[in-house]
Amino acid sequence: MLGKLHRETLAEQAATSLMNYIRTRNLQPGDTLPSEAELVTEFGVSRQVIREALKSLQGKGVIEIINGKRPTIKPISSELLQTFFTHAAHFNHHTIIELIEVRKGIEVQSAMLAAQRRSETELAHMEEILAAMRRSVGAIDTDIDTSVDTYIQLDVALHQAIATATHNSMMYHLIHSIRSALIETIREGLLHRHTSEEIERVQEVHEMLVAAIREGNAPAAAQTMAVHFDEALTALMKDA
């Protein structure tokens, strides 16, 4: 099954061999690896080496280790990407701008694919979120901090719903991880819309976006998403 290891850095070699094992066996989330004892015998190394190799794969988000059970293959998640982007966003303002530019390209594609692929159920979910966003806009004048926070949560939910409608899991994870890293920047950008007209414009663009997706108009959806990001970036930099 797995060849014995003979060189230095045995834990790294074991981790690499385990990754190859996962790929060649086409293991799926929920499938298990051999037990520690079986791996020790197969590799001809100590239990400590195997534990280090498994810990390495756990740290990379490949497997889950629960005491008393065999290591289990984890589902794909955006956890590690989110950690990376969150770390990057704390460096400086220029890095934040770069992340927003990356996010724009991905979300423009997301809007286009959602217009082409969305189901009626997915569209209904977008419409529901959009209606809640409209109600939230009406409350911003009375309690801006609370209402903006509510609006941002709904905004994130809408963009995630659009990403879901692409039926592209990689795009979904990328969008989720970048948006999570930039959540404070998103809030800051919305707070920079000082007038009710500016806040209303944000909502109108979201409504235009969902309308394009509803109509299956992929070019219009992509263009509207691009406008949304251009205006958000302008607002963010206005008071910088």
TrEMBL record:
SUPFAM superfamilies: GntR ligand-binding domain-like (SSF48008), Winged helix' DNA-binding domain (SSF46785). Pfam families: FCD (PF07729), GntR (PF00392). InterPro entries: GntR_C (IPR011711), TF_FadR/GntR_C (IPR008920), Tscrpt_reg_HTH_GntR (IPR000524), WH-like_DNA-bd_sf (IPR036388), WH_DNA-bd_sf (IPR036390). It comes from the Bacteria. Keywords: DNA-binding, Transcription, Transcription regulation. Residues 8-76 form the HTH gntR-type domain. Coiled coil: none annotated. GO terms for molecular function: DNA binding; DNA-binding transcription factor activity. This is DNA-binding FadR family transcriptional regulator. It comes from Thermosporothrix hazakensis. The lineage of its organism: Bacteria, Bacillati, Chloroflexota, Ktedonobacteria, Ktedonobacterales.
